[in-house]
Here is the input.
Amino acid sequence: MATTTITKTEKLVGKRIRRREDPRLITGTATYVDDIKMPGMLYAAILRSPHAAAKIRSIDISKAKALKGVHAVFVGEDTKNAGAVPCGASLPGLRVPHHNLLAIDRVYLVGHPVAVVVATDRYVARDGAELIEVDYEPEAAVADPEKALAPGAHAVHPQWADNVAFTFHQEGGDVAKAFAEADVIVKQRIVSQRLIPNSMETRGVVADWHAADRSMNLFTSTQAPHLVRSLVAQILGLEENRFRVVAPEVGGGFGAKIQTYAEEILLAWISMKLQKPVKWIESRRENFLCTIHGRGHVDFYEIAAKRDGTITGIKLKIIQDLGAYFTVLTPAIPTLSVLMMPGLYRTPNIQADIVGAFTNCTPTDAYRGAGRPEATHGIERMVDMVAAELKMDPAEIRLKNFVRNEEFPFPTATGLVYDSGDYSAPLKKAMEMAGYDQLRKEQVEARKQGKLMGIGLCAYGEICAFGPSPATPAGGWESATVKIEPSGQVTVLTGISPHGQGEETTFAQITGDELGVGIDDVLVLHGDTSLVPYGIGTFGSRSTAVGGTALYYALQDLKAKVKKFGAMLLESEDVTLANGQCTDNKTGKSVGFKEIAAAAYRAMKLPPNTEPGLLATHFWEPPNFTFPFGAHLVVTDVDRDTGNVSIRRYIAIDDCGNILNPLIVDGQVHGGVAQGIGQALWEQAVYDDNGQLVTGEFMDYTMPRAHMMPWIESGHTVTPTPVNPLGVKGVGEAGTIGASPAVVNSVVDALSPLGVKHLDMPLTPEKLWKLISAGSNA
Amino acid sequence: MTETINVSINGTTYSHEVEPRLLLIHYLREVVGLTGPHIGCETSLCGACTVELNGKAIKSCSIFAIQCDGAKILTIEGMAADGKLHKIQEAFWNEHGLQCGFCTPGMIMTTKQILDRNRNPTDQEIRHGLDGNLCRCTGYQHIVNAVRAAARAAGA
Here is the structure.
């Protein structure tokens, strides 16, 4: 809806405003990568290994090359000098495998790219790939991280004798003393299984090289376009200022599009080689195999506690399934679990060890939550187990151990400083909404009738707003540029790269409020490196907390300049900017925003020491992370005859600081909860012993569908963060982090009359039915 | 080898020579240039490619273009009329029934079928009706709200 009236009558922040990005999406006119078509464009199809571990004896591409419509076929020898897939994480002693764009001599996972066929259309490209003959010599593979670490296991990378990629140790406080003086010690092995992110849009790339001016246009479905630009330009030895990366409409990411992938480098290389635009669109099968997976933890917990329920120490050993090679953050993800291992509790004594294990599987990396769901699942399961051991109510033990309100900023045993919080508030609110005491009474009655009813709690904390730059591999600041056009309309360029999170709307709300203009006068642009000065991207619940803050500060600079021009026009020294105009505080005379903008560009006269034009850029470096928190409460009924879990009530109370747009925040929570319930009940990447991904299609990998999801009752408490002036903490990952332990705790509670103390995810009907049928003592 | 097909899409008649193996979704996107229907899986499991074929919602990745000779097809691009959004589109917008938007064209076409068959569906009927369409962003709750709102708007 175009408008030329610069008006502003009401505050925008805090309102349920429908999204400004939606009209193009609901009419089917948005442009995703696969919608891009260029004259003379060719299509690439990639042939991938069917074996998890094999030597390549020979590759015969002659038939593929002879196929009508095929322009080129490339194998590993062709691309070996083109570079390798980059890893941004560094840890002491880390073994980083060199991952070529296409396999050379050997493959080490199913889906390993072996050859690429470039043809006139996508059907011919796939035909060509089928005509390539590869002679493999299969070897034994290892697909399980615990087996990979066993003596004599097949070495994923022959240059290293074992599969240990790194070990990591961290301690805080005096954990030995805590355990020596404990009244009770509870131990449990807890698995956070491998998951497949499965954004609805797979990955895709269009590369378009122009030799005459040495410029590259790379359209890619990514969450971090500037990072892709810097890395791919560097890898291919191209000039960064002539390398443009565009993240067009991006159909979901969930962490799986933060990485710079082999195909982004490969397609750029091919476009240069063939002097043509080239497109590659990942098939869903490829997405299952070749885009990163998430989680993949085997955790060994030990908790020391006093009889009164005080948790005094936590020991954690993580075996992280890394997969066969690294993408940009792979080895760093489990270190986030260590940082968050105390959860919301005061526990001063911790000890953590990580062993990163290579397996012949897809690399793991950041999937919604990235390390924090694993940590939260672990601590929230363990707290329930300690409560059971001490015969305490699970709510009581949580309330007893929470960091107290007066203790903020709270230094944790893992070296973080929690910013602000009122940790008991969401839990109490959830219990009140649920009618907790009544539910417990109902449960007693249900159990008398042999019914399996469970009540599960989770109090989660998360580390968000990545982050202070020293704590990140590629900088953790964010940038914003705001231009007021001569017409008075406002253009925002942000370094974040939203793909569903709605910042085209929330950033317009912030801008409208700060400049005193209407939301329709603001346009938010992102995802194009030729437009945006530089940016880090959208991940780690950082976009609003870091990118929104950069915007806020850019707006302060710009506001000051607008007021200078306003004061000049009004011949005043004391003006206010609001409601689309600048007003002289003494005389009450005002001048419109449009007139000020026009005057700033027309520049007939300038305020003292002031340049023409209205533009401001701010790069904001956050002083700390933010720490959102919340509580989820889940009531389940488990069917004795089928093992099916019905979620009767799902209550999610989240505290993400100030809320800019409640409609969008609710949507983020719902989506996050769906992914957490998915992990708790259905989803799992299953590999067989040969390293074949058994759950490699939607037919086999159970994604939550509409009928499987409960109604989510969401609510909020609001504790602003002092870390940024907006008071926002981040909400993208909250739902996912809170959901899996809440659901599992509920089901374990339901089955506790059968002696069940712990269950590993996913809690499929088959798993529960077997347990119930056996009368069980798990 | 190609065959000629004549198809009416969103009220316009097209005549094209197509390979027998060309899927309807690729025909719509690559030949006709309608990129609203999306490809999420090519195996009929995600529903992002849902269009209406002779009045029924189908997954256009699971049918060949030549099977549609003589057919009447409606895609997401044909839902808005005279510059005015369809009530279902309005409802998805108002209720925040989408985030990344990739599944949305399929969701909207499926919603049309749900409401064509049942003007006043219960939440359970809505969820059952949406089961062939995957969304990874929304947890479906706002989509269910959108379908309900669209039903209300159509009744009004």
